[in-house]
Design a protein that fits this description.
The chain folds into two domains: 75 residues; 86 residues, Orthogonal Bundle (Arc Repressor Mutant, subunit A), CATH 1.10.10.10. It has nine helices and no strands.
C-alpha cells in the first residue's frame, strides 16, 4: 500500500469515524466492539503491504473493521483458546491402563469374529461403507446391485452386530454385578 493511500484511508477514518462506528455498531450490536474494531483498523492500515488498491474508502474501511470485529468475537467466544489447547496437550492421559487395553483387544477380536460370521455380502457392504467411506450409491454401482439392496443389507449387518454385542454386553454386566455382590 502506498503511503498516499495509507494517509488517505487514515484521513477518511478520522473524518467518517462517527458514521463508520454507527454503521459497524448496527452490524455487530456493540458500540464498544465497533470502536475497538475501528481502532484496530487504524493500526492495521499502518502495517499493510504494497499491492492494495481501494476504490471506495468508506466501504473498504467498514469491511476491514467488520472482519476485525468478527475475528475478535470468534476469539472471545471460542470454547478453547490456543493457550488452553497448548496447556491440555501437556496433561497425561490417566485413562490408559492395562484393563482398558485388554478390554479393547478383546472387543476388537470379538468384532472381527462377528464380521467373519456374517454373510459375505453384508460384510462387504458394511466395510465399504464404514471403512472405505463409500456412499450407498457408490457401493451399488461397484457391486452392480440396487441402492435399496445395499440399504437392506446394511441394516441387516448393523442389526446383527447390535444383537451380538448386546448379548455380550449383558453377559459382561451380569458377571460384573455378581462379582461386586460377592465382594460385598
Amino acid at each position: 500500500m502506498s503511503e498516499a493511500l495509507r494517509s488517505r484511508l487514515r484521513q477518511s477514518l478520522i473524518a467518517r469515524y462517527t458514521h463508520l462506528r454507527r454503521r459497524l455498531e448496527r452490524k455487530i450490536g456493540s458500540r464498544e466492539d465497533a470502536a475497538d474494531a475501528l481502532q484496530e483498523t487504524w493500526i492495521r492500515i499502518g502495517g499493510m503491504g504494497n499491492g492494495v488498491s481501494v476504490n471506495n474508502d468508506e466501504a473498504y474501511l467498514l469491511r476491514m473493521a467488520t472482519h476485525i470485529a468478527i475475528d475478535s468475537y470468534k476469539q472471545r467466544n471460542s470454547l478453547l483458546t490456543a493457550m488452553d489447547l497448548d496447556a491440555l496437550s501437556h496433561i497425561a492421559d490417566d485413562t490408559y491402563d492395562t484393563q482398558r487395553c485388554a478390554w479393547a483387544r478383546i472387543t476388537t477380536a470379538q468384532l472381527l469374529a462377528a464380521l467373519q460370521e456374517m454373510p459375505i455380502r453384508q460384510r462387504t457392504i458394511l466395510m465399504a461403507s464404514r471403512v472405505d467411506g463409500l456412499t450407498y450409491a457408490q457401493i451399488a454401482k461397484q457391486y452392480n446391485i440396487s441402492v435399496s439392496l445395499v440399504n437392506k443389507e446394511m441394516m441387516r449387518a448393523l442389526d446383527y452386530l447390535r444383537l451380538r454385542f448386546a448379548e455380550q454386553f449383558n453377559d459382561a454386566v451380569s458377571v460384573s454385578v455378581s462379582d461386586s455382590l460377592t465382594d460385598a
